Amino acid sequence: MIERSTKGNRQKGFTLIELAIVLGVIAILTAFFLPGMLKAREDSKLSTAITQLQKDFPGAIARQVSRTNTCSTTTITAAKLKERGLPDLTVWNTAWSVDAVTSNQVTISYTIDSTDTSAAADLASALNQSNNIVKNSATATGNTKVTVAYRCN
């Protein structure tokens, strides 16, 4: 009888079944964890937006007013506020703008592009609890924009 040596015939690599099982497990884990990670990402953006609108915007407006000693449409512009440290875009990579400027108030529009349908309303609600804005001036327009008024004096 001929004996065959099994030393040289060892399996190298993975079988197709093993690879399919691993891919299936990865797909199940992704389906389970991905929605939570996306929600956490949106929550993080909302938190950053609140910080920007409660602290960064009033700070930039105050610094600009202190440099010029006036609050007008020529001294308070988006370009000048960006020079005072404000970002070019919102946390959702959309543009923000200066809507109106009076002698004692600046109104900012902060656009939102969120998958969270309550983001704008939640943002406006959080801002209205702040002392850094004109009282109850934060309003949400659908889920696409929040308008906020700041003191300028």
UniProtKB/TrEMBL annotation:
Superkingdom, natural source: Bacteria
PROSITE patterns linked: PROKAR_NTER_METHYL
Q: By its UniProt entry, which SUPFAM superfamilies does this protein fall under? A: Pili subunits (SSF54523)
Q: Which UniProt keywords apply?
A: Membrane, Transmembrane, Transmembrane helix
**What InterPro entries does the entry give?**
N_methyl_site, Pilin-like
* TM spans (from-to): 16-38
Record's protein name: Prepilin-type cleavage/methylation domain-containing protein
Please tell me the species this chain comes from: Pseudomonas putida (Arthrobacter siderocapsulatus)
